[in-house]
Automatic annotation (TrEMBL), chain A:
This is SoxAX cytochrome complex subunit A. It catalyses: S-sulfanyl-L-cysteinyl-[SoxY protein] + thiosulfate + 2 Fe(III)-[cytochrome c] = S-(2-sulfodisulfanyl)-L-cysteinyl-[SoxY protein] + 2 Fe(II)-[cytochrome c] + 2 H(+); L-cysteinyl-[SoxY protein] + thiosulfate + 2 Fe(III)-[cytochrome c] = S-sulfosulfanyl-L-cysteinyl-[SoxY protein] + 2 Fe(II)-[cytochrome c] + 2 H(+). InterPro entries: Cyt_c-like_dom (IPR009056), Cyt_c-like_dom_sf (IPR036909), SoxA (IPR025710). It comes from the Bacteria. It is found in: Periplasm. The gene is soxA_1. It is an enzyme of class 2 (transferase). It comes from Actibacterium lipolyticum. Belongs to the SoxA family.
Automatic annotation (TrEMBL), chain B:
InterPro entries: Cyt_c-like_dom (IPR009056), Cyt_c-like_dom_sf (IPR036909), Thiosulf_SoxX (IPR030999). One of its GO terms (molecular function) is heme binding. This is Cytochrome c. The keyword Transferase does not apply. The lineage of its organism: Bacteria, Pseudomonadati, Pseudomonadota, Alphaproteobacteria, Rhodobacterales.
Length: 269, 161
């Protein structure tokens, strides 16, 4: 096949060890609820060797600058209650393990909540501060700081119990062929992962690496921003960040990565 | 003798009729295998123009899913989602190719290949790639009837035998 020389294929079996010490699970057996695939793989395994290398050392990972900014925000007093995140949660390490369960059922609210929703609940109702926009820098950076506390821990999202109906809704969306191109998430990320679509090497569309630093826009990107781009590319009317539809889709897609290490902030192209 | 002359006149008359009008997307007649016998535009396809449609991102962008060796030097990065189109004219006739390009879902049930000459029946149709809702009930087809004829003419040149 006469393909352009610009696509440097990655080493399929490469291992992801961060800072020479934290070994990540980037390939593992698919969770039982995944009917059509035997093995799940992190998006990292599909990237070029150069992009992969950027995630192997925190000095090279451009996403870490934004984590540093989030540490400042964590300690910064804001809002009418004159509190910071640190006032109630102590250090960010108190968030250890949280990212692997997100999104999750919130008993008090009676619905599935993402990390962004928990953060805004604290800002609005506990700090008396303004809510952050879903893709606002402060918000995405804070989700990266929280994700980092779980780096290397296996994704373990609950899909049963009260979250099940939301999970089913997300699953149905995953297989719906949206837009004038009539393409579902599964058409690209389940039926065609490892294939090139034009110059893009299709991954399994996993979200264990989020938020993801993209070389394309040189910032951290939220899960819903990525979903939005993929739906738009089918010539469809997209859903909004934070919409009930994207929350359901996030739960379903997150559960497809159960068993892979949480990688955020990851580096992608 | 007389009879032959008559049928030849009939044939010419019917060809004349077809070329007078374009076939709208909702009026395309597919046979049971998905083939379309009649030209959609009524004007012969131009293979050189079709070659541009196939390789241009804002038009057919067929190369995002299909590799075509003959184009590889000029147009980099061909996809692997669909089969390579080298020699496609050895595998299919013109009517079958026209049907596949117009609406591949009739030839291949459930295929990933988009339908290029269709205007309705979409879930959350958008306004092109803006992410906004479509502004009309029926969408303009992805390719015009003439673009499809041009693409068919181009694909008919892809022979290996």
């Amino acid at each position: 096949l006469a393909l352009g020389a610009g696509i440097a294929s990655a080493d399929e079996d490469a291992a992801l060890i961060i800072n020479g010490e934290t070994e990540m699970v980037v390939r593992t057996e698919a969770p039982a609820h995944l009917e059509n695939m035997d093995e799940i793989r992190s998006g990292w395994t599909f990237r070029s060797a150069e992009t992969q290398a950027l995630q192997m050392d925190d000095f090279d990972n451009p996403g870490m600058i934004f984590v540093d900014q989030a540490i400042d925000t964590w300690n910064q007093v804001s809002g009418s209650e004159e509190k910071s995140c640190a006032s109630c949660h102590e250090g960010p390490e108190s968030m250890k393990g949280l990212r692997t369960q997100m999104p999750k059922w919130n008993e008090a609210a009676g619905e599935v909540w993402t990390t962004e929703m928990y953060i805004n609940d604290c800002r609005e109702n506990r700090m008396g501060a303004d809510k952050w926009g879903w893709n606002a820098k402060d918000m995405v950076n804070m989700t990266a700081l929280i994700a980092l506390q779980s780096r290397g821990m296996p994704m373990n999202v609950a899909i049963d119990g009260p979250a099940q109906a939301t999970w089913e809704q997300g699953k149905e969306m995953y297989y719906t062929r949206y837009g004038q191109l009539e393409l579902s998430c599964a058409n690209c990320h389940e039926d065609n992962y490892d294939n090139l679509i034009r110059a893009d090497h299709l991954s399994q569309g996993q979200i264990n690496g989020f938020p993801a630093y993209r070389l394309k826009n040189a910032k951290l990107n939220s899960i819903h921003a990525r979903f939005k781009g993929c739906v738009r590319d089918t010539r469809a009317e997209t859903f909004k960040e934070g919409s009930p539809e994207f929350i359901a889709l996030e739960l379903y897609v997150a559960s497809r990565a159960n068993g892979l290490s949480s990688e955020g902030p990851s580096v992608r192209n | 003798m007389k009879r032959i002359t008559l049928s030849a006149t009939c044939l010419m008359a019917s060809v004349g009729l077809v070329s007078a009008a374009e076939v709208a997307p909702e009026n395309v007649e597919y046979d049971e295998y998905g083939a379309v016998a009649v030209s959609l535009s009524g004007t012969a396809g131009d293979a050189a123009a079709g070659r541009v449609v196939v390789s241009t991102k804002s038009q057919g962008n067929c190369v995002s899913c299909h590799a075509i060796s003959e184009l590889a030097e000029e147009v980099p990065f061909h996809g692997e989602v669909g089969p390579p189109l080298d020699g496609v004219a050895d595998r299919w006739g013109e009517a079958e190719i026209r049907g596949i390009v117009a609406n591949a879902k009739i030839t291949y049930d459930g295929t990933i290949m988009p339908s290029f000459y269709k205007t309705t029946g979409y879930i959350r149709p958008g306004d092109a790639y803006t992410g906004k809702a479509a502004t009309t009930d029926t969408l303009p087809p992805l390719l015009t009837s003439q673009q499809i004829e041009d693409v068919v003419a181009y694909l008919m040149t892809l022979k290996e035998e």
